[in-house]
Amino acid sequence: MTAVPQISLNNGQSIPQLGFGVFQIEKADTVTAVTTALQTGYRHIDTAQGYGNEEEVGEAVAKSGLDRADVFVTSKLDNSAHLPDDARLAFDASLAAMGFDYLDLFLIHWPLPDRYDGDFVSTWKVLEELYREGRARSIGVSNFQPHHLRRLHEESEITPAVNQIEVHPYLTQDEVRAFCSEHGIAIEAWSPIGQGLELEDPVIGSIAQRAGKTPAQVILRWHIQRGDIIFPKSVTTARIKENFDIFGFELSDSDVAEISALNKNQRTGPDPDTFTGGV
Ligand code: NDP
Questions:
Q1: How much of the chain is helix, strand and coil, in % rounded to 5?
Q2: Fold of 9-194+227-244
């Protein structure tokens, strides 16, 4: 089976660079999709309290026959649970739903600058406690801009292990990536194929044709060669397998540069500076 590269986080923990995302997978489809992913060889699952399918992720891991230690599982704090007492309860509820006694990685899902007086630092301190208790083996953030990260740096003790942000060829996020690289924070690229946005792009198409690969494989490979952690989502068995088959070829430096030059700062999701959590 293909060996997925491991990325070493700033606390010494390792994370498989390729995982499987379960955003927008219906509860009823999640056990099947995650089971297919685990059978294909994925050993990293990315879920969130807000996705409503943590229980099914836990069920698929339990049924897989794999050791819990061999599957890296991430979840994220719901936007409604930023107040410290709520955050603790929400974390406990995640573990209970999944049937786990620890998470490999737990993230603050959104910084929510306009809610709770912008006090994501108090929320982060709860994650620091969970980390010290060993119940979250690594902790991190999602959708944090450099100014949010700078506040954490100044007002808390533990540097996030990762920042999970939207990244794909039309949104290369150079500024956030540079800040994170300087501070030892790994980048997790969400919506790695832009939910399909760039699959028809002619530049991607011609590189794919030359490489004998699909556009999705070329984009995923581009992320891998840039060093980011990715977890494409699919409920389609053939695509789950296709997205895993990205380690038997390499893009040239000029292919990588050509794809990066497609950037037009085009988001598919909300802007972290204005998103209020939808409630
Ligand atoms: P992706 O970029 O992974 O795209 C998923 C879409 O692309 C689905 O419609 C899927 O269709 C389709 N697709 C998947 N593989 C292929 C392929 N090989 N060829 C053609 N189409 C394909 O988007 P997501 O938004 O799902 O992002 C991935 C993960 O990132 C999420 O599942 C979640 O874990 C995380 N995420 C985190 C966010 C955050 O705020 N932290 C926000 C959004 C996502 P189908 O399923 O029908 O096959």
A1: 45, 15, 40
A2: TIM Barrel (3.20.20)
